[in-house]
């Protein structure tokens, strides 16, 4: 085995492994994020690594993106729902998500958000788009209501 082949072999192995495991491994390694999908709230409650009590009971097609960095709280959720949010307060928007999901509304166009604890949530075309952490200003404004 020549030196060129010896240097190329590890690179080819890494490329091969990434192609076998798909985009999720690439996103986890390179972008430090993981994306999961859940059919409904039961599946979300059983398998999601985030707590989002604001999610309506009728939610379906739930997509969650979280950070793969240790102790990072960043997350976004996009879901389909015909229900209103409960226990959330509409306040002026001060925060924005770390990531945006395909099909999610542009959070920078929102003048207000629903503050739901540590989450900020805006309406999407057929449900809701939320992110955490939100800002202290949003949490304080919601508490003052």
Task: Explain what this protein looks like in three dimensions.
It is a single chain. The protein has 2 domains: 1-31, no CATH class; 32-144, no CATH class. Helix content is 30%, strand content 30%. It has helices at 3-21, 23-31, 41-47, 136-144; strands spanning 33-40, 60-67, 75-80, 89-92, 112-116, 119-124, 127-132. It has a 7-stranded antiparallel sheet with strand order 1-2-3-7-6-5-4. The N and C termini lie far apart (72 Å).
Helices, strands, pairings?
Blueprint: H1 3-21, H2 23-31, E1 33-40, H3 41-47, E2 60-67, E3 75-80, E4 89-92, E5 112-116, E6 119-124, E7 127-132, H4 136-144
Antiparallel strand pairs: 1-2, 2-3, 3-7, 4-5, 5-6, 6-7
Keywords:
145 residues; alpha+beta; 2 domains; seven-stranded antiparallel beta sheet; 4 helices; 30% helix
Structural class: alpha+beta
Number of helices: 4
Low-confidence stretches: 12-30
Number of strands: 7
Shape: globular
Provide the gyration radius in Å.
Answer: 19 Å
Q: What share of residues are in beta strands? A: 25-35%
Mean pLDDT: 85
**Number of self-contained structural domains:** 2
Strand order of the largest sheet: 1-2-3-7-6-5-4
What is the percent of helical residues?
A: 25-40%
Run of helices and strands: HHEHEEEEEEH
Distance between the termini: 72 Å
